[in-house]
Amino acid sequence: AAIKDLTRKDTHKCGIEHAAKHGGIYFTQIVHLNVVVISDPHLAAEVLDRTKTPHMIDKPTEPQFYKMMDEGTADPPTPSLISTTNADPYWKIVRKGTSRAFTVNNLRAAFEVSRNMSKRLVTAVKAYGAAKPLDLDAVVQNQAFDVIGEFGFSKDYEATKDLWKGSGAKACMALKNGRMLAYQAEKHQQSKVSLLSIFKDLLQEVQARGSPAEEDNSIAAHLMRTRDDKGQPIPDVRIWSEMYLISQHSEVEAKVLAELESLQLLASPQLPSPRPLEYADLSKLTYLSCCIKESMRLYPVVPMIFRKAMCDQRVGGYVIPKGAFFIVHIMATHSTERHWERAADFLPERWLDPNCEYVRPVDPKSRYVPTGPADIFAADKPGNGKTTVNSSNGHIVADSRAAHRQEHKVKRWFPYGEGNRQCIGMPLARVNLQASIASLLSTFRFKLADEMGGVEGVRMSECYNITLAPEKGLMMHCIPRANHANT
Ligand code: HEM
């Protein structure tokens, strides 16, 4: 069944279906790989535990996991920041260097870039008109591509200017296609060549600029400044779900609009040009922020992440042998009935509770208890998760961290991952999501195109290519609010 699952375009849904049947941890075999799939938040926390991951659990290097990504970004294929192992000293150096670009101080600059690119997108979508449906998934990716290009590398790709024919839009498309998995290998091969040339050109351009100025805070500048331990320089992201979900829930949309209107940010026939969005507005858009979190719960952009056991592991009372793989199934964790009330429903209000992202500590049901069928590796099963294996001598030792975790908050929502490999671009992604969605929603009303086949059709078109997206785009009519009453 696992091979059949793997060739499904919506292979992410298999993990959700199996988790519903087998629970928060189950074993499967994918080709010849032993894989443990996890969707219980406590067990996910154990696997992604920052103190454990550096040496006991690491990124897998087997070609089944990141080959496509590494091939598309370097020739010869080289592990990128996302696929390097913790054990590789290069990862630590690049992570440290790159993270300097994402400081809180730099977020204002990120907001400026995001606002400018959102403005451009609004202009391009207006010019396109409301009569023909537009692939909203593609155009918001163009916006994100421009933001990352400008904020990260001081490079304006202009993907948001000419949404389809421009060189930036083509580069963005190559990036999208470059992620294609095994069942679309041919498409991936075609994109690989163009993808490689995009990265090569960008690198040449950045190098040709010479040493970055002191005030230059871009990712490129920080990478150029980064040195390894010998003092040598180092060798040579989407938001479709939010727009869709908000547009499908009129009561939610009404609340978002009321929030935008209260801040004079909503376009209408009476106010065709509302005031521009400011950085300070982001923290006031509370309900919009709830909508974004709820969308990322139901449609996490990265539905699963991968790890490998570097030595025997004890997870949730099971002994997982060295060499086994973990899939931490973010999407299944986000949608399990065991941990979420009305898990399948889009309910932004739940996020008004500041503790919504954590497992309810008082709920005894929320603690994972190992049961029969998933007990594949149960050579030793104390069932309390309070022990672990010492990596240096292989001895089982008391795990004070696990006990500590039980008393502290465990996340049931982690769309950006968790632990030492958590998404480094999270601060930028958060600002850009809020700014771009606020800009689009304040200007347009969105209507799902008939060809999408309604809510059911959208659900059926979900496609997993490392990230999650509707297979043939998200076709929507974008109707300017300035021409129509906001009803
Ligand atoms: C909505 C937007 C985004 C989501 C949901 C997202 C999600 C994720 C997740 C789940 C991981 C962890 C992978 C793992 O643990 O195996 C990750 C890693 C990463 N992300 Fe993002 N990401 C987003 C945007 C961005 C942006 C805008 C950037 C950069 C400009 C970025 C750069 C990275 C990098 C470099 C890593 C690897 C970090 C490492 O392994 O040390 N991401 N992302």
From TrEMBL:
Source species, domain of life: Eukaryota
Requisite cofactors: heme
Residues that hold heme according to the record: 423
InterPro entries in UniProt: Cyt_P450 (IPR001128), Cyt_P450_E_grp-I (IPR002401), Cyt_P450_sf (IPR036396), Cytochrome_P450_monoxygenase (IPR050121)
A GO term for molecular function: heme binding
UniProt keywords, alphabetically: Heme, Iron, Metal-binding, Signal
Pfam families assigned: p450
Assigned protein family: Belongs to the cytochrome P450 family.
Protein name in the entry: Cytochrome P450
